[in-house]
Amino acid sequence: MGRIVFAGAMSHVLDPDYYERACGAEGRQKVVAAMAEIAAMGARCSAVKPGALIVVADDHLNAFSFNCVPAICVRVGRDVPRMVQDHAEAFDKVLDHMPERYPLHEDLANQVLERGLDAGFDLALSWEAPVDHAFLSPVNTMQGDRPIPPLVPIWVNCFVAPQPTARRCFAFGQHIARVVAASPWNVGIIATGGLSHFPELSLPRVGDTDTVFDRKLIHWMETGEHEPLLELTAGELHKSGEHEFLNWMVLIGAVSPARAVVRYFGELRRINLAAVEWTLG
Ligand SMILES: [Fe+2]
Predict the structure, then answer these.
(1) Please, what is the average pLDDT of the chain?
(2) Strands 79-81 and 52-58, how do they pair?
(3) CA 92 to ligand 1 centroid distance, Å
(4) Which candidate, 269, 89, 237, places its Cα nearest to that of 160?
(5) Chain centre distance of CA 49
(6) pTM of the full structure
């Protein structure tokens, strides 16, 4: 019987040069500190030897487009390429030095997908979509020079209304937990993005954050109070710049009722950086 053996969530723009340009020396110092904690989380993840690593992140309208915006999409196939963009944002340019292809855990991805459809989750699938900084910056920061476990990338639509609800993302996480429990594999899961910030998709609000709201979310995660998290509305997430917390809701559903431990929280005027790990029984 399989188990979730590691669970963590973290910011996914992990580029000291980017933050130095955006927020000065403080930006560099804080993201370097966050990255050190994420690397330590990676060492703990490697120590429990997951046979697969599920990565829940969002599309930044570069893997998909307005041509089709999947609510939740599972990447299937044997491997996945890192995204290559002619005019990449700085934080996607940091991918350039990273490996070009990553093996997938094909069986686990297929089971999440197939059993999901059986269970009433109308999931999208992709054989082709590449993965960007939202997947690869956390994974490479966690793993450093250690081999990267076979991945199961999952995209959640965090930015294009109407998004899936927080409650639905949590329920999907519970589905992932059931799939893992019925499988032979020990699995790690990470969710990426956030916390409070506005990306350039919301240009007029770039630079805003909502630290009070972040601290509320962190409190509920630390105490394992999941009911208020389930009631988060799209309007609240949009107003507070917590769009990417939907990724975290999938992870919270997968590990509920586990409690979170904050490894790093740092306020910046561009984004509030965070790295959180769950204590699993
Ligand atoms: Fe993002």
Answers:
(1) 94
(2) unpaired
(3) 11
(4) 237
(5) 20
(6) 0.96
